From TrEMBL:
It is an enzyme of class 2 (transferase). Pfam families: DTW. This is tRNA-uridine aminocarboxypropyltransferase. Keywords: S-adenosyl-L-methionine, Transferase, tRNA processing. SMART domains: DTW (SM01144). It comes from Vibrio amylolyticus. Its EC number is 2.5.1.25.
C-alpha cells in the first residue's frame, strides 16, 4: 500500500492541520531565537507561532557569531527588547508590560514604543547554553513568566516541571497584554495538534472523542 506524502508545512500524513491554525493580530512582537536543532524537529511549536501571529519572526542562533537579523530588529527606533529567560536580574512579564504601558502613556503615537519579546526556542538545556552565549543581548531586560497552570505539552520526553513549550510561552505573553481569547485559540490548536500528531505517527486517522 502506498502512503500519501506528508504535508510540507505541518509534516502530517493522514490529517493536515494547516487550515486550523488561528490567525491572530498581536499587539506585541515575538522574536524566536531558534537553536539550529529546532529546524529539524517536527515537535517544534515555534513554527505554529510563526504561522498564527502577524507579528512574529524567527532568527537562527549562531554559536560563534551574533544573529544579524535579530540585532537589526531590536535596534529599530522605539523598540524595547526583552529576553524571556529567568535570572537574578529578571523581572516579571507583568512588571515589564506595565513599565512599557506607563511609557506609552507619556508618548505621542509617532514615538510609540514597540515591545519585542525574545524567546529562546530549543530544549531547556539548549536554551540555557544559548543564554550564556549571547553577550550581544546583554542590554536586554530579562523577564520571567509565572504561568497559572502546568504545561500540557506532551511531544517530548524529560520535560522539567514548570517549563512551557514555545507556543505556550507565546500564549502566556498574549494573556499578559489582555488577549485571553487569542491565547486560548493557540492552546486549543496545540492540544488538537498533539492528538493528531500521536494518531498520525501511529498510522491512523485522528477521531475526536465524543
Amino acid at each position: 500500500m502506498t502512503h500519501p506524502a506528508p504535508c510540507l508545512r505541518c509534516h502530517l500524513t493522514l490529517h493536515c492541520v494547516c487550515d486550523l491554525i488561528p490567525q491572530i493580530k498581536s499587539p506585541i512582537h515575538i522574536a524566536l531565537l531558534m537553536h539550529e536543532n529546532e529546524l529539524r524537529r517536527e515537535t517544534n511549536t515555534g513554527q505554529w507561532l510563526l504561522a498564527a501571529l502577524d507579528q512574529c519572526s524567527s532568527h537562527v542562533w549562531q554559536r560563534k557569531s551574533p544573529t544579524a537579523s535579530l540585532i537589526e530588529l531590536i535596534k529599530q527606533p522605539n523598540v524595547v527588547p526583552m529576553l524571556l529567560f529567568p535570572s537574578e536580574q529578571s523581572i516579571s512579564a507583568e512588571e515589564a508590560i506595565a513599565n512599557i504601558q506607563q511609557k506609552k502613556a507619556g508618548l505621542d503615537k509617532s514615538s510609540e514604543t514597540i515591545p519585542v519579546f525574545i524567546i529562546l526556542d530549543g530544549t531547556w538545556q539548549e536554551a540555557k547554553k544559548m543564554a550564556n552565549k549571547i553577550p550581544w543581548l546583554d542590554g536586554c531586560q530579562h523577564i520571567h513568566l509565572s504561568p497559572d497552570s502546568r504545561s500540557h505539552y506532551q511531544l517530548r520526553r524529560n520535560q522539567a516541571d514548570g517549563h512551557l513549550c514555545t507556543l505556550e510561552v507565546g500564549a502566556e505573553l498574549l494573556k499578559k497584554v489582555g488577549k485571553e481569547k487569542e491565547a486560548a485559540q493557540l492552546n486549543e490548536f496545540l492540544n488538537h495538534y498533539m492528538n493528531v500528531f500521536h494518531a498520525d505517527k501511529c498510522g491512523h486517522q485522528y477521531r475526536a472523542s465524543k
